[in-house]
Amino acid sequence: xxxxxxxxxxxxxxxxxxxxxxxxxxxxxxxxxxxxxxxxxxxxxxxxxxxxxxxxxxxxxxxxxxxxxxxxxxxxxxxxxxxxxxxxxxxxxxxxxxxxxxxxxxxxxxxxxxxxxxxxxxxxxxxxxxxxxxxxxxxxxxxxxxxxxxxxxxxxxxxxxxxxxxxxxxxxxxxxxxxxxxxxxxxxxxxxxxxxxxxxxxxxxxxxxxxxxxxxxxxxxxxxxxxxxxxxxxxxxxxxxxxxxxxxxxxxxxxxxxxxxxxxxxxxxxxxxxxxxxxxxxxxxxxxxxxxxxxxxxxxxxxxxxxxxxxxxxxxxxxxxxxxxxxxxxxxxxxxxxxxxxxxxxxxxxxxxxxxxxxxxxxxxxxxxxxxxxxxxxxxxxxxxxxxxxxxxxxxxxxxxxxxxxxxxxxxxxxxxxxxxxxxxxxxxxxxxxxxxxxxxxxxxxxxxxxxxxxxxxxxxxxxxxxxxxxxxxxxxxxxxxxxxxxxxxxxxxxxxxxxxxxxxxxxxxxxxxxxxxxxxxxxxxxxxxxxxxxxxxxxxxxxxxxxxxxxxxxxxxxxxxxxxxxxxxxxxxxxxxxxxxxxxxxxxxxxxxxxxxxxxxxxxxxxxxxxxxxxxxxxxxxxxxxxxxxxxxxxxxxxxxxxxxxxxxxxxxxxxxxxxxxxxxxxxxxxxxxxxxxxxxx
Length: 683
Known about the structure:
- The protein is α/β, with parallel strands linked by helices.
- It is 36% helix and 16% strand.
- The strands form five sheets. An eleven-stranded mixed beta sheet has the order 4-3-5-6-1-7-14-13-8-9-11, with helices on both faces.
- The radius of gyration is 29 Å and the shape is globular.
- The chain starts with a helix and ends with a strand.
């Protein structure tokens, strides 16, 4: 039977729509993932990604003695030390609304994940309180679950909190709960591969649209010395000096360490659309299991090779497209040679002459940070791509004689090596192999260069700060003052924009209005010292504030008054005013209204009050009066900034992004929230 032209056309249109849908879906399933926020704490006092970079770039060694405040018994271990978070017991319980008893019963790993998630949001320029109700996922690895189970008879106050305080499943659930996140949440134990597996799963969830943002990482804190004791019983398990000598001829066992690292990731197209600061890109990843081999905990070379090949296929890259690999590199005589050989058998193929794959390992600086190690390696390589330098791997000279380094296709970083610009982005692989056989490999790419600026914004703007307590507010001011002093190249408008749009508005608030950087520094110094200053406004918000606008209203008659009636009919019946002045005041009102500041009275009622000569009083209920005449024939820009500052510190919600529309401002990498730590530890 013949098909009509109309039906044929309809079928063709439907087919084209379906093809377009499939094209978009396929594009999303292979889309690169942007790393938009990073946070970490590692041994050696490392509390930020920049501090981790400073440590590795300087060839720092963070291995030290055992912690003395955890109640560990005096014992002889095969190792003389390791890498430890000596402040693991510290936590800002008040910020997260956790009572002291519950905080004490809660595993420090859960508490660290909360604080690092907060910092990851802030470094992405996202207000941590603004993500409530969002489709943000949480994927985190942790392998220790013994914090609350160290006692045959739990201490007073722990009962009722012990299970939730130590359960691995609760770790990500707690993060999702406190931030109000509604994407998938998963705690996982893939041994030493945990954080890289978490990143892989987060990327998959983003590509499948299971979530729009995702936190991924891992944490390891040894509440007990049990793993040290077990490893001591294994011949060659622990290095006598506690140091991982990755891929070295002096390899003599691993050094156990602690740490936490969290990454905030987003589809690249979404990150660019939202104007995020992109730290690096995940081009592809793969996970697998070693299967049966030479022993349950022994690594499997062919399996590692297949893992790398799958990651390259996922990223649609060739081995020669990768410049360096952050190896697992535990420093064992069995594992390191097998890993190096797998790299030779994959990345060593078809490499251009003079361009070896450079190999290093963060474990040489920190020791084996276990569930946090893979994410720590990602942060290291993202920073290396940004700085154009491949740091040296410690304790690696001479390289392992069990590896055939002779053909030069894979070279160990016994010295730091420049990472020059080329005709393509810098790229690196990161490996993590779990003792249970689970393995992960992630391929990273240098972030695209930001667009050129048209010039820094010069408008007068308020700089706003807040804290959960007065002490936190003052500490924030002190941190920011140091940043402003040490970074004269960061535009003041960028700082104002970042504070207003990328930080939580907590109860204790302050705002600084200044015409130049010197005034900003003076205001920050005064605030940090708890001193009054004319450019500093402060307030404590207990409930949302209200705003009222006062207009100038001199009675006028004549032609100008009649013109005003036609231009502003809502006010015509109430009063006449000087047209130019009143027009400017209405313009100010429109600007503030666009920032979400809406007065509770209608225009007609406000006009009637103004005609009677009334002014809205400043109330004890948190209301704020903005007198348009006062704001405007002084400095209008400063007056507007002052109006916004006063409103903010009195709890009035300001839609800050609207204020910055049209201005060339970007998120600055400001100091993160100054957590007010107290010790919480089950003694």
